[in-house]
């Protein structure tokens, strides 16, 4: 006789839903898949853990800290990130507890790269203000000029799965591409563009600066007032990486001064973004609610990548997805 649903080991999803394809993968492997609400607090996570005793956490939203990990001990074996960025997981705490941490590396890269290009093109063409003028009854046929995309200097901070795709898209538009990425092996870029050895040199030449690096101690606050001032006057900032990389107060000041013409932002230091935040209504910011990866291919890829990693780790195997293992934990010998 099949076991009742409640008797199955649980994979707790730290969000209100998970793609059905990923749920099917986990259920077929014999796991129950309860969810929290969206952006669960620590208190809610602790309550959900006490109820379900999960063997794995599939992390979409909220913060997974040491207290959450301890509450799930000793059953918890793996934390799988629904996406590439793992800044919402306390990695030192996970490593200290022997937990395996994985991520769905590259699963959403095309979706995010497309979103970055959409923001970039919209702002190069002044579309937010043009559209606002149309709503106000203006007809700026002869009074407004927008920019040519061809020949614009694009600076990329990060040339991984997402940044390299942005480079290929931008190359098709005839942009002049340069990139700074100290994590790449020595040598030329593995795609379009010129490799730049240091960030200040990249900033000085970037009419558009697009960020595609992880959030970690070395990148937190990396783009502050000094870095924004180093960009050419009238530059555009596109930010689809992780909140916390950009000093948001400094960005607002640079926009208000006119030194930065536009900013397209999908990620914020505190999410969800407060209703009263000036980042929501600033006339020179095109903001979106951290949805760059929310396309059918992106969402399913992240969900199934995380689910498949959980199934593999709990079976004692390395995940098939390249670059999935962040901390080997119990897989240390296999890794």
From TrEMBL:
Pfam families, per database record: 2-Hacid_dh (PF00389), 2-Hacid_dh_C (PF02826)
Domain of life: Bacteria
Domain D-isomer specific 2-hydroxyacid dehydrogenase NAD-binding: 117-292
Residue ranges of every copy of the D-isomer specific 2-hydroxyacid dehydrogenase catalytic domain listed in the record: 13-319
SUPFAM superfamilies per UniProt: Formate/glycerate dehydrogenase catalytic domain-like, NAD(P)-binding Rossmann-fold domains
UniProt cross-references to InterPro entries, sorted A to Z: D-2-hydroxyacid_DH, D-isomer_2_OHA_DH_cat_dom, D-isomer_DH_NAD-bd, NAD(P)-bd_dom_sf
Alphabetical keyword list: NAD, Oxidoreductase
Keyword Oxidoreductase: yes
Family statement: Belongs to the D-isomer specific 2-hydroxyacid dehydrogenase family.
Name of the protein in question: Hydroxyacid dehydrogenase
Organism: Falsiroseomonas selenitidurans
Upper lineage: Bacteria, Pseudomonadati, Pseudomonadota, Alphaproteobacteria, Acetobacterales
